[in-house]
Amino acid sequence: MFRWGYLDRFQDFGLLVLRVGVGLIFLLLHGFPKLIDPSSWTGVGRAVSYLGIGFGYQVWGFAAILSMTLGALCLIQPFAHRPAALALTITMGVAAIWRHYPFAGWSASAYPLAMGVVCLGLLFTGPGKYSVGGR
């Protein structure tokens, strides 16, 4: 019988895997590709229209993309881990609302909701001992 309690000693390693994995997803799949494509900024920024904001879509899009890119680097590294996790949680909250309204309900929002919940958890747990400056 496997003793699951044995894995308790690897909690900080688990946080490292979570931080780096989520950070790489944000960096390589969402942040950086959109950061180097300014034509995508306005489309990403339109998500705030569902919050009643009707201006500055390119600026809002750039802010979201920057939070995904820099936030990912801060999760991976981690420097400013908690502010990055908060920014990513908010960005994913807006993304979930955007996916919900025009794209057929909450099931379309599952991915941004899951990423937002993970980032919220990382906000509260902190980076663990395998980080710049330790715990």
**Which sheet architecture does the biggest sheet show?**
none
The proportion of residues forming helix, as a percent range, comes to 55-70%
Rounded average pLDDT: 87
Q: Based on DSSP secondary structure assignment, what is the total number of beta strands?
A: 0
The general outline is globular
Beta-strand portion reads under 5%
Number of domains: 1
What separation lies between the terminal Cα atoms? 33 Å
* Helix segment tally: 5
Provide the gyration radius in Å: 16 Å
Instruction: Give me the secondary-structure category.
Output: mainly alpha
Instruction: Give me the strand/helix succession.
Output: HHHHH
Which regions are unreliable across 5 or more consecutive residues at pLDDT < 50? none
Account of the protein in words:
The chain is an all-alpha fold and 135 residues long. The chain has helices at residues 11-35, 41-45, 57-76, 81-100, 110-125. α4 runs antiparallel to α5 (110-125). The protein is globular. The N and C termini lie far apart (33 Å).
SSE topology:
Blueprint: H1 11-35, H2 41-45, H3 57-76, H4 81-100, H5 110-125
Helix pairs in contact: 1-3, 3-4, 4-5
Task: Give a short overview.
The protein has helices at residues 11-35, 41-45, 57-76, 81-100, 110-125.
